[in-house]
Amino acid sequence: xxxxxxxxxxxxxxxxxxxxxxxxxxxxxxxxxxxxxxxxxxxxxxxxxxxxxxxxxxxxxxxxxxxxxxxxxxxxxxxxxxxxxxxxxxxxxxxxxxxxxxxxxxxxxxxxxxxxxxxxxxxxxxxxxxxxxxxxxxxxxxxxxxxxxxx
Length: 151
Ligand code: FES
Ligand code: FES
Description:
The protein is of the alpha+beta class. Helix content is 33%, strand content 15%. It contains 5 helices and 5 strands, in the order ββαβββαααα. The protein has a 5-stranded mixed sheet, with helices on both faces. A hairpin with a 2-residue loop joins strand 1 and strand 2. The longest helix is centred in the C-terminal third of the chain and has 14 residues, at 102-115. Bound molecules: FE2/S2 (inorganic) cluster (2 copies). One FE2/S2 (inorganic) cluster is lined by residues 96-101, 133-136.
């Protein structure tokens, strides 16, 4: 089936099968591999994207459900060749090790700061509770969120 959706502000079309996930469609049909496929079960958050402004796991959304909707991925955050402040903060604080969780965490953090520019420690932990990182121990990630918020 054909779907038509807006991805990172651009009208895009894809030919998908009925059971295909939005994550698969983004990565394999729309050449947007930034959203990572780690668990494919909604457990890790590495595939986090915004669907009509709501943070979702793209592995749990059917591509067909995104037909006619707006999707924002990590690729859409940088503007005019400049990293998004959240991306800069992750790089500066050393919140990236293997990097597999990073795109999802960056998208989730950007969504948090959009809704709540000055989150408390508890609010940060709650907002990122769906994003797993097996490398960093999370301390640097929370530092990155606080740095981005301070800017
Ligand atoms: S790949 Fe989607 S939540 Fe893990
Ligand atoms: S940096 Fe490796 S999983 Fe987070």
